[in-house]
Amino acid sequence: METKITKTEEKTIDASGRTLGRVASEAAMHLMGKTSAKFQRHVFSGLPVKVINASKIKITAKKLQEIQHTRYSGYPGGLTIIKGKETLEKKGMKELVKLAIYQMLPDNKLRRKMMLGLKIID
Asked: Which residue has the higher pLDDT, 3 or 80?
């Protein structure tokens, strides 16, 4: 019992002047579908989300040093820890927003479906 998503139901979030965590939590709530009355935890009922002005997010230098992302290759000793500053320099603010939203979604089989509804625009 999956719902089909149309383009007209898309939620747009303007990120200019807002902090990373506030934008990410709002986007995650809409992607999960918790803002709708028909929310069920085991059924995908979320809305597609478009985050605009991602490069204008307020983030301090201290917070960039504190943010860490891990990547695991699957081999022993293959855990890589990447700082937020490195991610910002290499891939830009769009990647930081995407990773923050990804970590706020539930860690289950629906996470990939939820992430497909996310579009981030600078």
From this structure: 80
* Residue of 117, 121, 120, 122 whose CA lies nearest to 9: 117
Domain ranges of the chain: 7-59+93-120
Confidence of residue 4 (pLDDT cuts 50, 70, 90): low
- Taking residues 80-92, what's their average pLDDT? 95
In the block, which residue shows the tokens 């990773």?
99
Ramachandran assignment for 30, one of left (phi > 0), alpha (psi -120 to 50 degrees), beta (any other): alpha
- The verdict on pTM exceeding 0.85 is yes
Taking each helix axis as running N to C, give the angle between helix 20-32 and helix 93-104, from 0 to 180 degrees, rounded to the nearest 10.
50
Q: How far apart are CA 11 and CA 31, in angstroms?
A: 9
Residue whose token pair is 């539930």 = 106
Closest to 13 (Cα-Cα) out of 59, 47, 62: 47
Fold held by 7-59+93-120: Ribosomal Protein L13p; Chain: A; (3.90.1180)
User: What's the half-sphere exposure (Cβ side, CA atoms, 13 Å) at 111?
Assistant: 11
